[in-house]
Amino acid sequence: MKFFIDTADLNEIRDLASTGLLDGVTTNPSLVAKSGRNFLDLVAEICDVVQGPVSAEVAAVDFDTMLAEAKVLAKIAPNVAVKVPLTPAGLKVCRHMSDEGTQVNVTLCFSPGQALLAAKAGAAFISPFVGRLDDIGHDGMQLIAEIVQIYDMYPEITTEVLVASIRGPQHVIEAAKLGAHVATMPPNVLRQLYKHPLTDKGLEAFVADWEKTGQSILGAAKTAKAV
Ligand code: E4P
Asked: Is the CB of 159 within 6 Å of ligand 1?
């Protein structure tokens, strides 16, 4: 499963990219507004830091402007994935850009039918929002199960299921169990995945017991080299 982070915070992106665990980044207009940065500059900088797909979302809702914006965004770097909303105009832009060889991430997906349309429009990624469905009392993970099941029936569908609007580590686990290709998560959720109290407790005991040996691995290596 690929791990993307859902943020426009360059410091967070740099920090998590250094772990070697990051496969891509997703942004959206709300995250860009929060960053206070110039959008095009920001996308260029993120693309320098991360080699995988960096989703940059169009702002317009009409076809002509959206297509023009998509072309501007695609020119920023080869790893830009243009993000378009799941609307008739968005899917038309998706088809155009996919045909030109640009990866397209279709966002704001809330139903299996919408996911089918995005696949037919040549989307590289479909972004179903699990958290926002859970928020209104629906079952976000059920949507992921249905999309994965449908896409699996058709080998010609190459669209990757990018689970979005993730609220916690359990969403990531559930998405992985269902075979979703990608999870995009806020940085704190990626960090929470490391955590287990028994890991902390076990490490504390190992460190204490090692100290009792009075040994140093680096010291021993230096001595061995000197001999
Ligand atoms: C995905 O690409 C979206 O940017 C994101 O996951 C939305 O999440 P939210 O529902 O937490 O805003």
From this structure: no
